[in-house]
Amino acid sequence: MIVVNFKTYKKGTGKEGLKLAKICSKLSKRIYLAVQESDIRLISKVKGVSVLAQHIDAVEYGAHTGSILAEDVKKAGGRGSLLNHSEKRIPFNKIKFCVKKLRKLKMKSIVCVKSVLEAKKVAKLKPDYIAYEPSSLIGGKISVSSAKPDVIKKVVKAVRIPVLVGAGVHTKEDVLIAKKLGAKGILVSSAVVKAKNPGKVLRELIK
Ligand code: G3P
Predict the structure, then answer these.
(1) Left (φ > 0), alpha (ψ -120 to 50) or beta: where does 56 sit?
(2) pTM for the whole thing?
(3) By C-alpha distance, which of 76, 28, 18 is closest to 52?
(4) What are the chain's domains?
(5) Where does residue 132 rank: exposed (0-12), middle (13-18), buried (19+ CB within 10 A)?
(6) Residues 110, 128: contact at Cβ < 8 Å?
(7) Closest ligand 1 atom to 192 CA
(8) What kind and span of H or E run contains 129?
(9) Terminal Cα distance for the chain, rounded
């Protein structure tokens, strides 16, 4: 499984995001695209990709101006959400609320964690996936697979939930090492979204 996080990169926003989504859709059926909330409706129309929100808020229908409501994400075509990404951390009680809400709506939850300890705590909530991402490596050239193999192993061993890993992933080697260490997939952003030829990079990663 591959999650491409479009973040708020220009090439992952609006029409440019749509173009990128179409490229991704041709390469694999197991690709999830985490896009900005305002692009979910547009990008979920692309056949062959599953769209995720990058974040949802811990709210129900009501007076919550500016919040991202899981029900609305679903209606727009979203299949789930990332939660607690390093760039959008939320308190544990809100992670709990959102995982429960996503489960109720039959949507996927991918909760990001920074450590084995946090993975163990989050695992109790039974999200669909736990994503281990060391924040210091995000957006860089050194991958989680090469810098933190021991932690990946420990996270995989510590939880009974499929583990994804992300941060600095940019080569096929990174993907293979992660897989060998027990990860069920990867999260990738800058290497694909900011690439001159994103299709080529992605093809290489999933080959
Ligand atoms: O969610 C994935 C992301 O944080 C990893 O970013 O740019 O290191 O691939 P990047």
Answers:
(1) beta
(2) 0.97
(3) 76
(4) 2-206 (3.20.20.70)
(5) buried
(6) yes
(7) 9
(8) strand 129-132
(9) 12
- Which token pair is 169? 């992933």
Residue type, 155: V
Structure tokens that stand for 61 in this block: 């229908």
Helices (H), 3-129: 14-25, 40-43, 70-76, 92-104, 116-123
Top mutation candidate among 7, 35, 82 for ligand 1, by most atoms within 8 Å of CB:
7
Q: For residue 22, give Cα distances in angstroms to 9, 189, 198.
A: 16, 16, 11
pLDDT tens track for 51-110: 999 999 999 999 999 999 999 999 999 999 999 999 999 999 999 999 999 999 999 999
By CB atoms closer than 10 A (0-12, 13-18, 19+), residue 9 is middle
Indicate which residue of 55, 85, 118, 170 is catalytic: 85
Q: From the CB of residue 10, how many other CB atoms can be counted at a distance below 10 Å? A: 10
Q: Which residues pair with 52 in a beta bridge?
A: 34, 80
